[in-house]
Each structure stands twice: as structure tokens, then as C-alpha cells.
């Protein structure tokens, strides 16, 4: 299937590893030139060079903390007239509701709600002027099915979801789509960190903790960044212009719901 993306330009945040890297690679395979962002310069440049070598697209790297005003200014300048924005940031730490204070919520909001909104506000007007654009926000399955120990993530990502629900319908008439991808358990560093926590609490090995969690999924395994990236690339494609303001689960059937 031709995604119709050859020659487009995308900003992909937090794309040196995990789901962000999966999205960057899938877009590059479709012929999209990239602006890749992450905090760690060495890992970021290594993955960017691998993409250049494999897919022959142009890749600009911006090593910065995109949750800061300075970092946002850097990626916005590098993105220029971007056609595609993929918002992504690591989730806040797990805990219990009694653990979190105001500052914890502010940090979660900055990373998982306010930064995506700032980038949308910066890049979407240009997309509207040009009559075409795609925004994909990587949120979480917890938006549909809250996870108790991830209350900070539940809260911040739900806020972004509400913002997108209204905004997507205001810009759709100008050829710009905004949608959210809701990952469940994927084989990423984030999953490793959560599994290590379970292993320590329950006296299990890391492998045992992974197997125990994988067994809770109908598919019986974790998702891959390649699967996730392919879904992102489709949402960015010429075929997805009628998908507006949606929250699409990629969770291996983990959320047991009819709608």
C-alpha cells in the first residue's frame, strides 16, 4: 500500500528508542524526512544514522528536553514546515495516590499534556495553511482503562485526550487530522521498568514477571515497536483523512470493553 507520504516532513518526539523510534522508522520507510528528538545525543544520532543508511531519507537530530520551553523552541525551529507531528514522551513514575504532591502532577502535565499541546499550537497552523497535516499523540491504554499505580499518567494523558477531542474537530476542515494511539504493553524500556518493579515486589525474576504479565493478554505476548510504528504511519497516510479525533488501542486485547 502506498501511504502517499514520500517527501513529507515529520517531527517525531522521543524517538531514539521504543515506540517513538518505531514510528520514526515506519515513516522513514514510507519516504518521510525526519526531525528526531531525544534527550540523549549519542543514542539519538546512532538511530538517526541507521535510518539514513537504511531508508535514504533526510534526518535532522535535536537532542534536548522537549518538556522545557528551550527544548520546544529548538524542535519547533528544526521542524520548520512539518507535515506530520508525532507527540511522545516517557510516562511519569508509578506509585500510589498518597505518594503524589502538586509538583508531581505539574511534571506529569508538562511532559504528557502541556508539551504536546504546545507543539500542536506551533505546527498545526502551518499545516492548515498548506491544507494538509497529521498529528498523532502517543498516549496510553490507561486513558480508556485507568491503571491505579499510574495515576499521574492517567490524569495527564486524559487531559490531553480532552483537548484533542475538541481541537481535532476544529481543524479537520483544513485537511489536518489529530488522533491518539493508545499503547498497551509493548517490549520497551518502560515495560522493563514496570516489570522490574513487579519482580522486586513479588520476589520474581524479570523473566517470570514478564511472562506473568504477558499471560494476562489475549494475544499472550507484548507488542512490538514495529507493529506500533506501522499503525502510526497509517494514521499519517493519505488513506486516513476521515479518521478524526479518535483514540485507537494497540493493546493486544488487554482492555476488555465492547466500545
From TrEMBL:
<dbReference type="Pfam" id="PF13561">
    <property type="entry name" value="adh_short_C2"/>
</dbReference>
<comment type="similarity">
    <text>Belongs to the short-chain dehydrogenases/reductases (SDR) family.</text>
</comment>
<protein>
    <submittedName>
        <fullName>3-oxoacyl-[acyl-carrier protein] reductase</fullName>
    </submittedName>
</protein>
<dbReference type="InterPro" id="IPR002347">
    <property type="entry name" value="SDR_fam"/>
</dbReference>
<dbReference type="InterPro" id="IPR036291">
    <property type="entry name" value="NAD(P)-bd_dom_sf"/>
</dbReference>
<dbReference type="InterPro" id="IPR050259">
    <property type="entry name" value="SDR"/>
</dbReference>
